[in-house]
């Protein structure tokens, strides 16, 4: 199993036989990265980060951005050497073998699908906020949010099913099945809308900053109160990591990139740098304008206690930042920029479905590559005769995304997605070091600087953030991984092309 390594030369030969048209340059790649990164993370999770860390979430953005940056440098070396689809799965297959590659691919399914669910829930909050602002209409709470899940059980008192999230998830799935995919121009327009909305927020919120809102700077400390998991500045960094997820979508586009050896690293690091600056400015504006206003120290966002406290505050006519489902719009409305708040909501409504589309699209590409290697049934990659899309796997993924969006809050979905992402990034950091030792003579158009510092820091950073996720999110990865191992030994181990000696399919 560990000896089943797919040689790099075989991977490149396969990609050449079934290659995609190379048309993307550095600007399009950077826009693709910015488009994939800026989404629910900054629009929605700002509230959850404020509850976990208070003003200290400024450090949380820096820490999460730093871990992503060192991981991006490792990604860049592998992506420039292996410019094919499949992202961390393909890199792992070439370096550490089939079994761990399967586990990475399985974790990427968790990343992309659950991330699409999180974005769907984020869209739901902004959509209902905009509808309420324009018409005064609100859905009954039971139909606007899912239940609260804890290790001790499920609480349906504050929500049963998130109907808007289900509608947008299934709507995007149907569009993708029919063959709708983003053109570079369409993506550029949506990126411009998101960047313009965040720029407007920064311009309006920063002048209203009040230094008093930054004290106490870290009400929950660095690691949260004793006995609470996933709290404090580091816990917020583990959650807000979701706000950076998407930069690896650049590496999945390597097969469609002109001069990938040069352009992929530019796209990865450029998009990450742009988003980090935006995030720090947005966080400073949100906290500075109205304060973090945590409901209570040590209370986990999305928990039954948190929901009850927010409901009690809402009954008194008060909605703190941490309780808002549309954080940035809420900040602007709170400082009397109602119309600008509506514009932020409109931008989120227009842009977030495109992020769902990209996540679902990325998911189908991971499935496609795994099926191409024989690890998943070829039937999943069946192309519809009329629509020319992998309709079966798209529909299956879309239904899974809709169910998760219906039943889980955005914070929990983001944390679950992070668990899969952090595992994949950890494996990439390990793979780049192994390949430096195993194949030092191979051409590396982009070499990770200070590899023996950067890669271990990336790996340790991923491990550190993982163990600062809430307990429920940490448990999902091993449980999901156990299902994946069972499927691999029942099917993939026997059907694998590498295992059967087939290297050119």
Structural account:
This protein is 67% helix and 1% strand. It has 505 residues and is mainly α. It has a single domain, classed as Amino acid/polyamine transporter I (Up-down Bundle), CATH 1.20.1740.10. It has a two-stranded antiparallel sheet. Helix 17 packs antiparallel against helix 18. The longest helix has 38 residues. The model has no long low-confidence stretch (mean pLDDT 83).
What's this model, at a glance?
The protein is mainly alpha-helical.
Question: Could you give the topology of this structure?
Answer:
Blueprint: H1 8-17, H2 26-37, H3 40-53, H4 57-81, H5 87-95, H6 98-135, H7 141-144, E1 148-150, E2 153-155, H8 163-177, H9 184-205, H10 232-240, H11 248-252, H12 260-290, H13 304-315, H14 327-334, H15 338-372, H16 391-407, H17 410-438, H18 451-466, H19 471-495
Antiparallel strand pairs: 1-2
Helix pairs in contact: 2-9, 2-12, 3-6, 3-10, 4-10, 4-12, 4-17, 4-18, 5-6, 5-17, 6-8, 6-15, 6-16, 6-17, 6-19, 8-15, 8-16, 9-12, 9-15, 12-14, 14-15, 15-16, 17-18, 17-19
Number of domains: 1
Class from helix and strand fractions: mainly alpha
What fraction, in percent, of the residue positions are helical? 55-70%
Number of helices: 19
Shape: globular
Please indicate the percent range of residues in DSSP E strands (runs of 2 or more): under 5%
Largest sheet: 2 strands, antiparallel
Compute the CA-based radius of gyration.
22 Å
Q: What is the average per-residue confidence, as pLDDT, rounded to a whole number?
A: 83
Oligomeric form: single chain
Would you state the CATH class? Mainly Alpha
CATH topology: Amino acid/polyamine transporter I
Identify low-pLDDT runs.
none
Number of strand elements:
2
Report strand order across the widest sheet: 1-2
Topology order in helix (H) and strand (E) letters: HHHHHHHEEHHHHHHHHHHHH
CATH superfamily: Amino acid/polyamine transporter I
CATH architectural category: Up-down Bundle
End-to-end distance: 19 Å
């Amino acid at each position: 199993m560990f000896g089943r390594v797919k040689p790099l030369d075989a991977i490149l030969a396969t990609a050449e036989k079934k290659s995609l048209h190379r048309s993307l340059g550095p600007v399009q790649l950077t826009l693709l990265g910015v488009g994939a990164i800026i989404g629910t993370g900054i629009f929605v999770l700002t509230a959850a980060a404020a509850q976990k860390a208070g003003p200290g979430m400024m450090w949380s953005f820096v820490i999460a951005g730093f871990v992503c940056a060192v991981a991006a440098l490792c990604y860049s070396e592998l992506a420039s050497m292996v410019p094919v689809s499949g992202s961390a799965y393909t890199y792992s297959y070439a370096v550490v073998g089939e079994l761990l590659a399967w586990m990475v691919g399985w974790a990427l399914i968790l990343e992309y699908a659950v991330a699409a669910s999180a974005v769907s829930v984020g869209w739901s909050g902004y959509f209902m906020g905009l509808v309420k602002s324009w018409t005064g209409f609100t859905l009954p709470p039971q139909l606007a949010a899912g239940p609260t899940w804890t290790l001790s059980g499920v609480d349906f008192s504050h929500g049963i099913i998130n109907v808007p999230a289900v509608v947008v998830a299934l709507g995007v799935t149907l569009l993708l099945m029919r063959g709708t995919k983003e053109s570079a121009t369409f993506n550029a327009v949506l990126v411009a809308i998101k960047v313009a909305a965040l720029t407007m927020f920064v311009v309006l919120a920063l002048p209203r900053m009040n230094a008093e809102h930054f004290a106490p700077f870290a009400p929950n400390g660095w690691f949260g109160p004793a006995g609470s998991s996933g709290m404090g500045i580091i816990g917020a960094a583990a959650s807000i990591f979701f706000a950076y997820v998407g930069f690896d979508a650049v590496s999945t586009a390597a097969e469609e990139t002109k001069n990938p050896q040069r352009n992929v690293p530019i796209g990865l690091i450029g998009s990450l740098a742009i988003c980090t600056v935006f995030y720090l400015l947005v966080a400073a504006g949100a906290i500075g304008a109205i304060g973090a206003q945590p409901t209570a120290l040590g209370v986990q966002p999305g928990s039954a206690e948190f929901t009850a406290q927010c409901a009690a505050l809402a009954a008194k006519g008060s909605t703190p930042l941490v309780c808002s489902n549309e954080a940035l719009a809420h900040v602007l409305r709170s400082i009397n920029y109602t119309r600008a708040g509506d514009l932020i909501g409109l931008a989120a409504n227009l842009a977030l479905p495109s992020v769902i589309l990209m996540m679902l699209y990325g998911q189908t590409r991971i499935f496609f590559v795994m099926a191409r290697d024989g690890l998943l049934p070829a039937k999943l990659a069946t192309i519809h005769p009329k629509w020319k899309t992998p309709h079966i796997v798209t529909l299956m993924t879309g239904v899974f995304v809709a169910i998760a969006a219906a039943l889980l809050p955005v914070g929990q979905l983001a944390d679950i997605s992070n668990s899969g992402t952090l595992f994949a990034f950890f494996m990439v950091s390990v793979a780049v070091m192994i390949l430096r030792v195993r194949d030092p003579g191979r051409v590396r158009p982009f070499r990770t600087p200070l590899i023996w510092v950067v890669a271990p820091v990336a790996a340790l950073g991923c491990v550190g953030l993982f163990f600062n996720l809430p307990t429920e999110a940490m448990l999902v990865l091993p449980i999901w991984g156990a299902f994946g191992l069972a499927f691999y030994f029942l099917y993939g181990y026997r059907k694998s092309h590498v295992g059967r000696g087939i290297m050119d399919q």
